Amino acid sequence: MPAAARPEEERDFQPGGYAETVTERPPTTVRGAGLIAAVQGATGLVVAAVLVFRAIGGADQRVANGFGTAMWFALAGGAVLAAGWALLVGRRWGRGLAVFAELLLLPVSYYLTVGSHRPAIGIPVGLIALAGLALLFSPAALRWVSGQGPASSASSAPDTR
């Protein structure tokens, strides 16, 4: 008579289980969008550091508060950097924040190009934001975020969610 299974053995990892699907490697398009978002977030953190150093160094605070602006850039940059990291390692929650950040950068790039007369900065910012959005809304990224793998996307079965 075989020995009864111990509770520890019943909880062992089963290949193809939940943990494997959650940590599956994201498509190249998602990793590319994650890289773009991570670089944008890191840039926001660098801008925050520069603003703090300028404020400490005695830069004029009458037009804009360097500390308050730095706090905003640190908060936004940290969130976008976290979203980029999440996409790079295959966490789906980072996509929404990355899409939101890219959408916010489009009017910023327009203002830089037209309002501030700095097309050398505004046009690249806009193109990078559009590239990030294109990667995040590519067919492979949409299949990934919906939880469908490449093999199951051709299935004609109805969605059971």
Automatic annotation (TrEMBL):
Name under which the protein is recorded: Integral membrane protein
Transmembrane segments: 35-57, 69-89, 96-114, 120-142
Region (Disordered): 1-24
Biased composition (Basic and acidic residues): 1-13
Species annotation: Mycobacterium cookii
Keyword annotations of the record: Membrane, Transmembrane, Transmembrane helix
